[in-house]
Amino acid sequence: MFIEIDMDSEVPIYIQLMNGLIEAIANGTLQTGNTLPSVRALASDLGINMHTVNKTYRELEKKGLVQIIPKSGTIVQQRTVDEAKLQQFTHLIRPMMAELLANGLTEEQVHQLSSDIMISIKEGDQ
Amino acid sequence: MTIALLLAIATFIIIIQAAIPYLLKPTIVFGVTIPNGYTKNEKLLFYKKMYASIVFIIGILTITAFMIWAMNAKPLEEKMMISGVAIQFAILILSMALYFVFHAKTSKLKTENQWGANLKQVRLVDIAARTADEMLPFTIFLLPMVITIGLIIYTTIHYPSLPELIPTHWGIDGQPDAFTEKTPFSAIALLLILLIMQGMMVGINELTKRSGIKIQANRKKKSRAQQLAFRKYSSWLLFATALLLTILFAFLQLMTIHENIGGTAIVLALPIAFIIIIFGMTAVYAFKVGQGGARLDVQITEEEVEGITNFDDDQYWKLGVIYVNKDDPSIFIEKRFGVGWTVNFGNPISYLIFFGPLLLILGISLYL
């Protein structure tokens, strides 16, 4: 799967890269137990600093999506959702949802939007 | 014989040098990133044609003059050799000078027309590309080294029966033409040099493997396939070179140990065959594969994506030829003008790779 980094964007590179990798996990390109490309390989392919990729991997680890095992690589973790995580997601989505509604979107439009996004993530960037 | 060989080499250099603009990716013209949509600009195409024609015509005129001179004046072999090599260098210098002229012209054209100002610059990575990379593993490169070590041991065993004078230089006819006194060091110096070169090749293979797989933003599938093929063929070419070099050096060494090993025919044929095969392989590689796989025909149809272009990294290319980027962890990087790889001078390891083996080989030669 291809990950595109927009060099003109205000979103930092490490976040763009993180979002791309999360999508890859979401659509099954990267499955539980898979190893992510090495920091050096990913940084070389993009021609960016290794610290940037390192930061992305650490953020992913913080989110519990991967585990960094020194010398053997970064491995996609078994995904679990507990009460705490659900609450965390609610906090994350709530302001966005509110913004949509505040802009006058109907409930149906919000549903439509979310299912469209879901489909495009699942299809991936094949 | 010498003149035929000199002419063949000079012609080869002229053809490759003249063809360079056409062996590259269309998006990099004279070391300048050209956004998609402008690559077929008339002026750019004219620049490429001009460069190729000037190199080709001046080159051919020069070697014709050389041939006429050599035929009529019948100079000494040595004098002819020096002039022949001088011509080769002259062609290289001419093409380099022309390159700088057109590099400046192309840069100017790009700034004046503000090419790509309205395009979004992106960088692309394929997270699965590494698993599809088919570059040769370093273990294969160790095989020729094993042969060399075997030969060192073999030479040590036969040391007492070695001649008192050890050849250190061979003519184009495969006959030794310079010698040094026999010492344990001079007996294996040739093999040590071979070992350094083989080691260098393992290093090049490993480091090019670690270098970035560069995917073009608006034709990602095609460029991915071309990149992977380019890497694979580069690695094969390197291995073939290592193997041929081993055969040549091993043969020279065995000839020193057993004087009557090869007939005159083999002695004469071997270096010539070596040169012909190396040049042949390089030519096929340059014209069939092209820089970054640009000339490879890939059976992939995809729609070109509009509105985006590759990240313009011209700022890291000094004069369009020297790459200096401290952030990029790649040590080897694809050349912009020419087929093959160059090093990233933003990384201190590059200096070591660039000068280390050279100094070692020079050291051995001086010590002899």
UniProtKB/TrEMBL annotation, chain A:
<keyword id="KW-0238">DNA-binding</keyword>
<dbReference type="Pfam" id="PF00392">
    <property type="entry name" value="GntR"/>
</dbReference>
<dbReference type="GO" id="GO:0003677">
    <property type="term" value="F:DNA binding"/>
</dbReference>
<dbReference type="InterPro" id="IPR036388">
    <property type="entry name" value="WH-like_DNA-bd_sf"/>
</dbReference>
<protein>
    <recommendedName>
        <fullName>HTH gntR-type domain-containing protein</fullName>
    </recommendedName>
</protein>
<keyword id="KW-0804">Transcription</keyword>
<dbReference type="InterPro" id="IPR036390">
    <property type="entry name" value="WH_DNA-bd_sf"/>
</dbReference>
<dbReference type="GO" id="GO:0003700">
    <property type="term" value="F:DNA-binding transcription factor activity"/>
</dbReference>
<keyword id="KW-0805">Transcription regulation</keyword>
<feature type="domain" description="HTH gntR-type">
    <location>
        <begin position="11"/>
        <end position="79"/>
    </location>
</feature>
<dbReference type="InterPro" id="IPR000524">
    <property type="entry name" value="Tscrpt_reg_HTH_GntR"/>
</dbReference>
UniProtKB/TrEMBL annotation, chain B:
<keyword id="KW-0472">Membrane</keyword>
<protein>
    <recommendedName>
        <fullName>DUF1648 domain-containing protein</fullName>
    </recommendedName>
</protein>
<feature type="transmembrane region" description="Helical">
    <location>
        <begin position="264"/>
        <end position="287"/>
    </location>
</feature>
<feature type="transmembrane region" description="Helical">
    <location>
        <begin position="135"/>
        <end position="157"/>
    </location>
</feature>
<feature type="transmembrane region" description="Helical">
    <location>
        <begin position="233"/>
        <end position="252"/>
    </location>
</feature>
<feature type="transmembrane region" description="Helical">
    <location>
        <begin position="185"/>
        <end position="204"/>
    </location>
</feature>
<dbReference type="Pfam" id="PF19124">
    <property type="entry name" value="DUF5808"/>
</dbReference>
<keyword id="KW-1133">Transmembrane helix</keyword>
<feature type="domain" description="DUF5808">
    <location>
        <begin position="326"/>
        <end position="351"/>
    </location>
</feature>
<feature type="transmembrane region" description="Helical">
    <location>
        <begin position="349"/>
        <end position="367"/>
    </location>
</feature>
<dbReference type="Pfam" id="PF07853">
    <property type="entry name" value="DUF1648"/>
</dbReference>
<keyword id="KW-0812">Transmembrane</keyword>
<dbReference type="InterPro" id="IPR043831">
    <property type="entry name" value="DUF5808"/>
</dbReference>
<feature type="domain" description="DUF1648">
    <location>
        <begin position="147"/>
        <end position="194"/>
    </location>
</feature>
<dbReference type="InterPro" id="IPR012867">
    <property type="entry name" value="DUF1648"/>
</dbReference>
<feature type="transmembrane region" description="Helical">
    <location>
        <begin position="50"/>
        <end position="70"/>
    </location>
</feature>
<dbReference type="GO" id="GO:0009636">
    <property type="term" value="P:response to toxic substance"/>
</dbReference>
<dbReference type="InterPro" id="IPR014574">
    <property type="entry name" value="UCP032908"/>
</dbReference>
<feature type="transmembrane region" description="Helical">
    <location>
        <begin position="82"/>
        <end position="102"/>
    </location>
</feature>
